[in-house]
Every structure is written in C-alpha cells, then in structure tokens.
C-alpha cells in the first residue's frame, strides 16, 4: 500500500467524523423538497446512539429440551444524539420545533461518516426518516469557562452501515 491507508484490521480512532443532515423532508415529493433549506450540517462534537437491537421471540419445541428456538421479530433503534457547541444559527432548535407544529421539514435523512486519522472516509452509517424528538440547551455556569453545548435527539426508522471504498482498491 502507499502508506496513506491503514490496514483494514487496524481500529479507527473515534474522534474524526462528519455528520450530514439531508436538507429535504424524507416524505415529500422531490419538487417540494427543493424549497426546504438545509438546517444543520456537520460541526458536531459528539455522536451517540449508533446501535441496533433485534427483538426475538423464544419458541420452545415439544420434545426438544436442549434448546429453545429464537425467532426474529423486529429491529429497533435507539435515539441518535448529536452534540455541538452553541452557535448563532438556531437550526437545531427550529428542526425540533418543526416536529411539534408541522409536517413539512420535520423529517430528515442523515449520515455519520467516520474518518481515518488522515481524514479519509472509512465507515459510514445512514439513518432514514429522522425526527428531532428532543433538544437540550446548554448548562450555563458563571463560575466555569466552558463551551456552551446543545444537543438534539433523533428518532429514526432504520440505521444502515455503508461500505466506503478505499482509494486504489
């Protein structure tokens, strides 16, 4: 290899990533989605909630005492939480408000892309039909010199890992 890309077996540090929130409503026709503006993009300090759970149903079988069948029922996904320093752009709070009062502009698709130490996309996750279900403002304390942080919780309809191609492969 050319020394730019680490071997596939090396763990990737979790401190370099990008977040993209699709500017269009996930449930609008394309022509209508073009009028909705981009409300948030990439400058997040923390992402949590990238996980999935398969619910199963235990089904015993008569005459079989050495195991119980585990049948798949449905997938569930926890909320994704995005945190960032407070900026003057109120986009995250407006997105949360859109979910309470209107349907247009309330749903977003999004992507989280993990980068290698050299900034090359390594792994990506896409969520569909995201809805801002919670917003948390900064904790303010006059005796501390800390960055004001806001966060948004996103419920969604599915998470998919995206294989990213490596240059030269």
SSE succession:
EHEEEEHEEEE
Measured as a percent range, the helix fraction is under 10%
The CATH architecture comes to Roll
> In DSSP terms, counting alpha (H) and pi (I) runs of 4 or more, how many helices?
2
The total domain count is 1
Low-confidence stretches: 32-41
Major β-sheet, in short? 7 strands, antiparallel
Indicate the proportion of strand residues: 35-45%
Oligomer: single chain
Give me some keywords for this one:
single chain, 169 residues, mainly beta, Pnp Oxidase, Chain A, seven-stranded antiparallel β-sheet, two-stranded antiparallel ribbon, 2 helices, 9 strands, extended
What does this protein look like?
There is one protein chain. Strands 1, 2, 5, 6, 7, 8 and 9 form a seven-stranded antiparallel β-sheet that branches. The model is unreliable at 32-41 (pLDDT under 50). This protein is mostly beta strands and 169 residues long. The chain is extended and about 70 Å long. It has helices at 30-33, 91-101, and strands spanning 17-21, 46-48, 53-59, 69-76, 80-85, 107-115, 121-136, 149-155, 159-163. The chain has a single domain, classed as Pnp Oxidase, Chain A, CATH 2.30.110.20. It has two helices and nine strands, in the order E-H-E-E-E-E-H-E-E-E-E. Helices cover 9% and strands 39% of the residues.
Compact description:
By secondary structure, this protein is mainly beta. Helix content is about 10%, strand content about 40%. The protein has a single domain (about 15-165), classed as Pnp Oxidase, Chain A (Roll), CATH 2.30.110.20.
